[in-house]
Amino acid sequence: FASYYGDHMVLQKKPPGAVVWGHGELGAVVIVTLSGPSGLIMEKTAQVKGPSGTWTTVLDPMDQGGPYTLTAQQGLEDVTLRDIYFGDVWLCSGQSNMAMTVLQVANASQELAAAAHYPYVRIFAAAPARSDVELEDLEQIDLPWSIPTAAENLGHGNFTYFSAVCWLLGRSLYEALGSPIGLVEVAWGGTPIEAWSSRRVLQACGLPEDTGREGPQISLWHGACFNLNPALCFAPPLNLALSSSTSPHQHLSGPQVPSVLWNAMIHPLLNMTLRGVAWYQGEPSFLSPGVEQLPLSHRALTSPSFLGTGEANTFLNTDQYNCTFPALIADWRRAFHTGSLGQTETLLPFGFVQLSTYRHQSADDSFARLRWHQTADLGVVPNARMPNTFMAVAMDLGDEHSPYGRWVLGWGEGVGMEFLGTSPIFFLFLGSIHPRDKQNVAHRLLLGAKAVAYGDKELVFQGPYPTRAVLEVTRGLLNVTYSQELVYRQRDAQAFEVCCSSQASPCQWLPAPVVAVGSHTVTLALSGCRMLVLGLRYAWAEWPCEYQACPLYNPQGLPAPPFL
């Protein structure tokens, strides 16, 4: 069998058939049998074909349940997999907020203790790997298919396995559906979307395909990383002169290189029949590490006490994300549909987490821009450019005191010091890039999955969104109408801003304080604007609000997403 088939696995239940494949002697016939407690259920034959010597078959669609045994026989040799269940298989991918384990979340001890109650939620984790060419099978596995246990796999370590967002979503799907759930984690911290994209995506969005394959390599990171397994933390040779003006067109390194994670971690899985995808990716790669091998003099800067990870596209190709993300979704769907011989549906449900927070009172709007681009600049999903998708808004789940933050070069309260040779280097700890509340993230993903992937049309799965804005010029007011009933949780004079200018660019953004909130309307004061009102935006900040205290929610407790 291929590397990601094993005891305890979950195969996709009907209506599709589960794809099973493996390796053999060229030209040989492989007999695949599925058996249950009462005996043989089905038998399939497949021929081993070249040039790579693989065989593939599609099982007949199966109802949920188990356990079953699956045997592949070639001549006198056979391999049998046991304790196989049929259910729904979800792929979880992205960066460090997806790689953050159950051990690291809020109420971790309770979450780990609850693992024993979910023996039919099975988990698998691919090892971080990269390749310059598309691989047929995974080169390495961190966690073979397993029944969840607290210490051995759900809480193995920081940013290793098993993904908290993936686990909490899968556990909730099991509770909601009563079906076995298979979870496949494929994540690597600090990696940009370009690394997870095929060359087709890069071409479609006009991005270079070979950045980093030749010439001097640098990293788009220029801080130090914190609290991470060294195998997952890649840091550059430290150049104190390197500034944030580093061109994104310079050579990237390691897992930041375009397509290397698609090649090594996604392409090998394409034969798998899937029910859905969950994705958490996008924050800044300059907060993340870069090259594995460091000069000895830099060892102090990359010791385990300084190791960590960040996220990636608020620095690299930020304003291309409105192309790369929809293109990645469409490309993965086509590839998984084709690779599974048509079994994975063409519009594979794709859920994602909108960026959370990083720094208080930052003037940088790259987080806000990327949140907007995550929706293909349409504010909500699903939409025409991103059909059959769903989004968990997370901008109100910031965690300023998260211990899984970042050491960066700097000076201030909480400064730390290490030596580079005989020279002291000062570091400032910045928290919050990895919020510990993954329960609300998973709950919001669950709502979207139930509505979009499982067809619950009556379920409210996203917060209120504006449908129109009417200007009352004589009164200096702007009335914004929303799609849902509003709950006004927190007064914030800065949350709404208007573009107040005589021309569209450059725009002068001024606060528009809320003067009244009705059941579906918000009235804003425009007293500070003496020119034309050319635009309106909401929650357009790196840290828009405190924990669960943004201004607008719906009665179900879901925050209104940001918009422009």
TrEMBL record:
<protein>
    <submittedName>
        <fullName>SIAE acetylesterase</fullName>
    </submittedName>
</protein>
<dbReference type="GO" id="GO:0001681">
    <property type="term" value="F:sialate O-acetylesterase activity"/>
</dbReference>
<dbReference type="GO" id="GO:0005975">
    <property type="term" value="P:carbohydrate metabolic process"/>
</dbReference>
<dbReference type="InterPro" id="IPR036514">
    <property type="entry name" value="SGNH_hydro_sf"/>
</dbReference>
<dbReference type="InterPro" id="IPR039329">
    <property type="entry name" value="SIAE"/>
</dbReference>
